Amino acid sequence: MDRTYEPEISLDRDSQVPLYQQIAEPIEAAILSGALPAGAMIEDEVSMAARLDVARPTARRALQELASRGLLTRRRGVGTRVTPPHVHRPMKLSSLNDDLSEAGFTPTTKVLEYTVRESSPSEAEQLGIARGEGLLAIRRLRYADSHPLALLTNFIPLDIAPTWQELGDHGLYRCFAMRGVEVTSARQVIGARGATEEEAEALGEPMGAPLLTMERTGHATSGRIIEVGTHVYRPSLYSFHFSLFTS
């Protein structure tokens, strides 16, 4: 069983600083200093209110304030934990694996599906191959510092398909580069929707929780389509960054 963290808090009931803020500040300081690591369990509002002799709504507001800043994650039936660091991904043509490494995270990959099969009519059209021609269908779970971050589904032409082992050790674009194939352009659509039961279980989110989505079609230098991807991300840990200009 996880150890529950009970923050050392000294309340000044004569201060003009609200009690909920006096509770939240030392917890925030412990998180930002690293004294309270990602994933650590925080005592619940009932226990906190009783221990500090404050009203339960006061303790609840303190925890909600920290959750609204992305420092805590609260889930019914699970408890309140320190949120892992957020991944800020720039909008450039790159692999998630490389972006995580550059940002100082340790990426790992679990290959959930690796299937060689005939393409359906719609898949063949997306990949620009003949109907019924073979493809590789893969699904991977990508972690950042041991935290599940993204569920990645891709269709790839068979002649440039990576092995299971390669996909577990490298990002997809690195696997392509090992075959002399470079991804030079892509069409990408970003959206959002609720998590399916399978996605929720894989990512550690409640069913129906909001997820970021990305659909990408990658092209090689020749213009050939070399991957079609449908990816979902945990928005509590992940965001896209854009730079916008007037002209």
UniProtKB/TrEMBL annotation:
Biological process annotations from GO: negative regulation of DNA-templated transcription
Keywords: DNA-binding, Transcription, Transcription regulation
InterPro entries reported in the protein's UniProt record: Bact_HTH_transcr_reg, Chorismate_lyase_/UTRA_dom_sf, Tscrpt_reg_HTH_GntR, UTRA, WH-like_DNA-bd_sf, WH_DNA-bd_sf
Gene3D superfamilies: Chorismate lyase-like (3.40.1410.10), Winged helix-like DNA-binding domain superfamily/Winged helix DNA-binding domain (1.10.10.10)
Domain of life: Bacteria
GO molecular function, one term: DNA binding
A family per Pfam: UTRA
CDD domains per UniProt: WHTH_GntR
Signal peptide: none
All copies of domain HTH gntR-type, residue ranges: 17-85
UniProt cross-references to PANTHER family, sorted A to Z: GNTR-FAMILY TRANSCRIPTIONAL REGULATOR, MANNOSYL-D-GLYCERATE TRANSPORT/METABOLISM SYSTEM REPRESSOR MNGR-RELATED
Name assigned to this protein: GntR family transcriptional regulator
Lineage: Bacteria, Bacillati, Actinomycetota, Actinomycetes, Propionibacteriales
